[in-house]
Amino acid sequence: MSKIPATPEMIHDRLYHLAKATTGILEKHNIPYSLAYGTLLGAVRHQGFIPWDEDFDLWLFSDSYDEAIEYLRSELPEDMFLEDEKSEPMYFHGWAHVKDLNSETAQNLYPQDSAYSHKGLHIDLYKMPVLKESEMWNYIDNEFERYINKRREKGLLSDEDYQVRLDKLANDRKEHASFKGDPDKTIYLFLTEHIYLEEHEVFPLKRYKFEDDEYLAFNNADKTLTLLYGDYMTPPPEGKRDTIHSEVYIIQ
Prior knowledge:
This protein is of the alpha+beta class. Helix content is 36%, strand content 25%. It is built from seven helices and 13 strands.
């Protein structure tokens, strides 16, 4: 085997291969999903990949997430790997990845991810919580606690960083104690951004052009992207077009 430095086109070819296989399995089993984050932005603004993007993002919904993961675990092609707490001893994320076994990366933005055994390009399978508005902050705070405890268990947070995050969590819980929310309103939560959509903004899912195919995404992509990015149709200046990897190689 040999390793070849990857061009952006080669990276996108591998990610496209991952995406077609992953969404094909989900659609075969009628599992709903949506293009997410920069991938949804790419579909709307570029009708494909953002030129400097180096991953592929999907949202899966919490009420069908476990079912989706087990289908992917058993049906992904041999050149892909379902990475989660069952398959990776150091796993600490709250969502799974589909990893490419024919590429290798070095982390840039997220150095903690280097703890994982498989270093390939990946699809993020983000879990979108479906819950009542009144449950929102309790869910967010509990997930943050789970995340920092998992990273601490794996030796991926120093004592100092762990204590800083515990203090933040304690302050957040005090601040959120007075939040009521509507116990009858179902929301679709962007967990780390602390924002949400309502059901009519998510469903019915629509198909959006992405390169040579079409993929499912939320009914109201404009609302989604505005919440996440503001003026999302204006690309960032060249100096702020960050990539998540410092190196990418294709393995042949």
